[in-house]
Design goal:
The complex is a heterodimer of chains A (about 375) and B (about 280). Chain A is an all-alpha fold. Helices cover about 70% and strands about 0% of the residues of chain A. Chain B is α/β, with parallel strands linked by helices and about 280 residues long. Chain B has a single domain (about 1-230), classed as Rossmann fold.
Amino acid sequence: MSVRDRVTLARVHRTERAAAPAWARYHRSSAWLAATALGVIVIATVSVGIGSVYIPPLTTLRILLARLPLLSIHADWPSTFGTILFEIRLPRVALVALTGAALASSGTAYQGLFRNPLADPYLIGVAAGAGLGAISAMTLRMAHPTDVALWAVPLGAFAGALVTVSLVYALARVGSSTPTTTLLLAGVAVGAFAAAMTTFILLRMGQQIMYVMAFLLGGYSSAGWDAVLAIAPFTVIGFALMYLCARPLNLFLFDEEQARQLGIPVERVKLMIVVAATLTTAAAVAFSGLIGFVGLIVPHAARFVVGPDHRRLLPLAALGGAGFLMLADLIARTVIAPEELPLGVVTAFAGAPFFIYLLRRAKNAAFF
Amino acid sequence: MLAIEHISASYHQHTVLRDVSLSARAGEIVGVIGPNGAGKSSLLRVIGGTLAPVSGRVRLGNVALAHLSAVERAQKIAVVPQSARLPKAFTAGEVVLMGRTPHLPLFGAERARDYAIAHAAMTRTATLSFAERLVGELSGGEQQRVLIARALAQVTDPAISSGEPRVLLLDEATAHLDLKHQMAIWELVRQLARSGLIVIAALHDVNLAAQYADRLALLHEGELLVCAEPARVLTRKWLRRAYDVSAIVSAHPLYHTPMVALVAEERTATDEKDWTQTNTDKR
């Protein structure tokens, strides 16, 4: 491509964007995305500084910038600060942020796909299945620590989630469609079964039960860079797949018949969205345990701000989920310091009232 | 020209259409009538490509629909559903823009041309004035117009010559609207048909069908009983056969299209005689 071609293309791109009229909100919500992204950075910077050793946000920024090449910043902070930041706080906050983004974006996708404002990874049983898979893998790892790699846990979670979602799907299928009511009923039933199995395994565990319980409720005490590196690819790939399907997902808000009539290969796109959302949910559950309500509250808050177009909704929900869970984690590790609250407890504390509010409002509100 | 040739179809192992053949020309409105379960919606779904027929074929111009991909078919044939199936939180303009879906790559975004086409479709359907408002805030009639605009945006393709046939399928599109809005929508549909579209509309209201359709196709238990001008379809004989009702058919005072009045079975004997008497007296 010559330089002139490139300039022309850029100009076409600019005029096409300028041509977008006021009734298409898609091009107008970039400000919200930018603001939320900025908020996420601020929360992250403040959050990594808070703990048994306080590091002021500006110092945090300077420590981070000092790591970059070409920048010479005079190190006037205690050398332990760097270690605390890079070895303890940053991996934990990064893991929390990725988990929040994963749960919120997959929650958004599930809600859109099933046209149900209450659908989230928990309601359709996917998270319980992922939990069962993760716990099974963990049990194996505890019995044979050398033979089973850390990767076994996310793989187990993904397998558990995929089996659950296929089972729920097969049970809910009526003819060639999957009605929401049967889907949610099947999800609740299969989820309850997976939860019962998990409890059974837990009771057989003996000594390690506290460790696994802490995991189930969402505990991060053991978070390290290896966990961050293990969850990142799942989250990124899953999100990318969901984002690709964002425009078809908008059409699913009408109904599948209309989407099909508009030329969308409905079954293929549905499968792609389910696999992607399941992948991200499983990754989140594998490393962060069962953290409820993020996948329910954040998508609704994002929808309230930018409307139902998934091309804006998915990124905003991902950013919002990251920010929300980082805040929840900050609360979890500060309110009863040096002890920690399980993260799932904090999100449920904020989430349960919101859930009730949703139920009360559902009668006359337009969610999509 | 749209030709439906010997179509049989089944749904959940239940035969819904038996050897149905009919055709429609550009500029024409064909009304599909018949009692519940007669196969009206199934026929529309076969034409729209979302229900595959067991046998027979649908041809549009010179091509058989079965030879088109889902996207190519969607570029030529659009469905106007009932507005109850609209998500409420999109703006009217966003809904119309979604009609452009078959013209975009599956994972691509709209271009300037698509905005222009959506704009034009809204101008033609008088929906531009509320393009920025949320669908949930609009009245039933306005929502229905938005769906017609979406269908128009769907079948508009500047790359293809205007001579190629385009089809609008209306499935009980006005059943939930009050009289004034029903009429407004049908006036719009007629205007669109006259501009060269083929319109196939399933309706419950036979009088509305008589007033706006150029021809009527009467379905009964999946079979096409008759397809002709309204005056030849809406007769006592056919209405008895398809709907199992007694009816008296007169003419619209202004347009002379047939008007159907139902008569309760147990009162038929006497009342009908009176009615015939009075009318004969007048003449």
